[in-house]
Amino acid sequence: MNVRQIEAFQAVMATGSVTRAGERLSISQPAVSQLIAQLERSCGFPLFHRQGGKITPTREAEALYNEVQRMFIGVGQIARVATALREQNWGSVSLAAFPAITRRVLPDIVWSFCKAHPDTRFRLESMRSRSLIDAVAAQHVDFGLSILPGDRPEVVSALLHRLRGVCILPAGHHLADQPTIYARDLADEDFVSLGPQDHSRYMIDRVFDELKVSRRSRIEAGQSETAFSFVAARAGVAVVDPISAFNNEDPRIVVRRFEPAVQFDIWLIRPKAARTFNLVDNFVAYTLERLDRFAASLNGG
């Protein structure tokens, strides 16, 4: 049994005629008949009933044809997948990122990439930076976006952007009309702090401590999104990352520049020992290009 015999068999089954099968394969009718006879000998049973120049398939031939069709469909699928892999259009990508960028920025980036590469699948996880560094180190995800550089030998880190924090205030607050809020302006103001597990909490506290500015910090919020809710409820003011404040549409909150600058970093974290995969590399490059544009919009570029 060989490929030419199978091709002849497929052609006869598809056309219902040895003559038309020969035309399809660009070979003579006797050549088709010879290939079918050879295939029948290999199978050990007849494939066609022959009567008065007509042939009809046996039930064995119909069963064999179904299997052959499945096999060739499988081969075709393999070829399509190989082409898609070559063109970086097929496969799966997993990434983890800190909560603010996961909620506010990455869904649009992932979905726009999916629309251009319809055979790709994504898994996006929201994690705090230390957890996502561990996930990248263990290769549970292909890469991560963190506010901290990786501190494990299994990962490599690259600083992508350094963004300025912003001050959020309740609408109508006595400082809301100022274009820039200075740390000293917040002396004795009710202040919503981020939780102690949030690395940016220490950067913000250090600014006020160095300037010896005292705040009334009665509320801690685990994440910047929660801080927004407290500010909207007029529980106080807060300093948060600019990603959380991006495109703020809540009329109860105003967003203002904050001085002195509190820097929020975005780091790309990748596993050091990971095998290269074109699709992942392509998506990382796409993500970085989109983040460049996003950072420029935050910085007024």
From TrEMBL:
GO terms for molecular function: DNA binding. Keywords: DNA-binding, Transcription, Transcription regulation. Coiled coil: none annotated. The keyword Transport does not apply. Residues 1-58 form the HTH lysR-type domain. Belongs to the LysR transcriptional regulatory family. This is DNA-binding transcriptional LysR family regulator. It comes from Azospirillum rugosum.
